Amino acid sequence: MRLVVLMLCVAVAGGCVQMAKVGPGDVVIRDRMSAKLESPWNRYESPHAGRAEIWTIDGLSLDRVDFYAGIAQGETLVEPKAGQDKALPRFRAKMEPQEIVEMVDASIALDGSVFRLDRLAPSRFADGDGFRFEFVHVRKVDELTLRGIGYGTVRDDRLYLVLFRAPRLYYFARNVAQFEEVARSVRIVR
Questions:
Q1: H or E stretch including 78?
Q2: Could you tell me the CATH superfamily of domain 17-78+87-188?
Q3: Choice among 10-14, 96-100, 102-106, 158-162 with the minimum mean pLDDT
Q4: Cα(first)–Cα(last) distance of the chain, in Å?
Q5: Long-range contacts of the stretch 99-102 (C-beta < 8 A, 24+)
């Protein structure tokens, strides 16, 4: 009986979320992007991460960076859960930055959370032309207000996007400089 309980515990633990340390140094993201880290981050390792590679410094509820490395024509940012009938916008290579931000909005709002764009402007990203945007995200689950920054670019008909979110009262100010360093270091791997 003890063996059965032990085996069950091991099986359940195997499906749990795990964190793995990444950095410092150069880190490859989904074989399509790289970033140079000055300090270590934690990479969220779970089959539920979907199309994004997710990193955090202090924990996913306190700060997170989502890397979308090479979203192809016709793909969505997130995979809809079973039973969700809301159609998500699909990436098109000719999308304008505003339309890409609307994809982010639709993905964040999928669970009933609120997204508000505060600023969108051209910016250098991944050694080329791109865009930067600032936003507010109010999580439905706990009504916590997060501030966020995103950088994006389209290269070779693929979308490369990095999003940072953290509670506005403490963790955003604490970790935004580290995120900006990471965003400045992002390169597209060919």
A1: none
A2: Mog1/PsbP, alpha/beta/alpha sandwich (3.40.1000.10)
A3: 10-14
A4: 53
A5: 100/131, 100/152, 100/154, 100/159, 100/161, 101/133, 101/135, 101/150
